[in-house]
Specification:
Largest sheet: 2 strands, antiparallel
Number of helices: 16
Strand order of the largest sheet: 1-2
Number of strands: 6
Oligomer: single chain
Structural class: mainly alpha
Radius of gyration: 23 Å
Order of helices and strands: HHHHHEEHHEHEEEHHHHHHHH
Amino acid sequence: MKDDLDWSEVEKGYILSAFFWGYAAGQIPFALLAGEIGCKNTFGFAISMSSLLNLLFPAACESSLILGLLVRALVGLASSAMFPSVYHFFPRWVPQEEKTLMVSAVGSGMLLGEVVGFSLSGYLVSTSRDISLWGFALGGWPSAFYVFGVVGILWTPLYAFAVHSSPEEHPYITSDELTHILKSRGGCVTADNSPTEAYSPLINSQSGMKSRSNSLADVMGETILPNGEVYGSICIEDPYEKSDEATAVDTKKPRTYVKFQRSHAISDIPWKAFFTHPATLVLFLSHWTFSWIGYMLLTEIPSYLTDELGYDLTSSGLLSIAPYAANFVAVIVFAMMFEEFQVNKGWNDRSVRQVASQIAYGGSSLCLIACGFMDIPGLAFTFMVFALFCYGAAQCGIACCYLDVAPNFSSMTNTIGNTFGAVAGLAGPLVVSVCITHIKGSWGW
């Protein structure tokens, strides 16, 4: 792509980082919008609109660099709705005791997409240069954008039919499954198994900063859910305690009733606590580190394989699969391992998150440092694969932390963290392009 359009390394860096300009700008607005119109709608918009823009991206780049930057930034803006939407889904659909495994399982789907994307892109770019339709060249690097754009658009109606924002809205959910999910929230069901207002805990946004402890629950009030975990203060009611027509899930003792509030007014969101409390500040710093490693690898692995290690374009596309295949396997392996530790070894959430983060950040960083100084391409590539394997532990760490700290505000706190992460994604390609332009050899990489 760079050679066909006669771009310099710096101009290529601008294109790679342009995605994150829009991605950073859209995080908080889409988090608020997901609460207003439903996470199903915002996530569907993210996929369909970014797919449509991908179809326009090749023509924009061939027209001018500025237009290419604009379209790429708009792809990032549309895509920024994805994670705010996902973290609206999680508290509603994922039982609290299953979040380490389930959040990782959902994240593994994204990694599987990267494996397919890298392999298919390398094949398309290297084998389809002579394809044209009605006089328009479709082959070469544009073919990758066309194929994935069409796939995303075809996916949209299937998503609209199959996905629902909450289990209460799903027409085909079984009563046993619904009861299980509501019970994990500490909610109630009526005698005929119809759902009540039972959702994720509500932080009391009016209580303000009252302590400097490491728990948001201490800042905003706290309560203990039926499963024994402590969260931010919630609406505690037992509307069916004296009713003959409906009973709590556990009828032997009153249960905490978690009242659902679909969206929060901007004035009700505890912004001060988010930006001043140690728990969230550490989350945001951790998210920046997570994104710096992940986005830098995502954008630079193909260039590193071709420019530094000397692999050809076809091999580069195929070899790009291996690190993310390792990452995909690692997510599943670490999720099952930490789930076993929690269920049978007595580990609590905090221990799992800390160990997972140390493996993800420490292990991947050491492997990448070693990778940069390896003269043997095969050995350097091996360290890259190990780096992505270690990085897979992060799905049991930072990806779950927002649900631990403030589950009912997990979309907003994750969104803020993702905004910091998008800045890392924006800076990564620019830093790499400057380094390899001005510092030659292994030290540049």
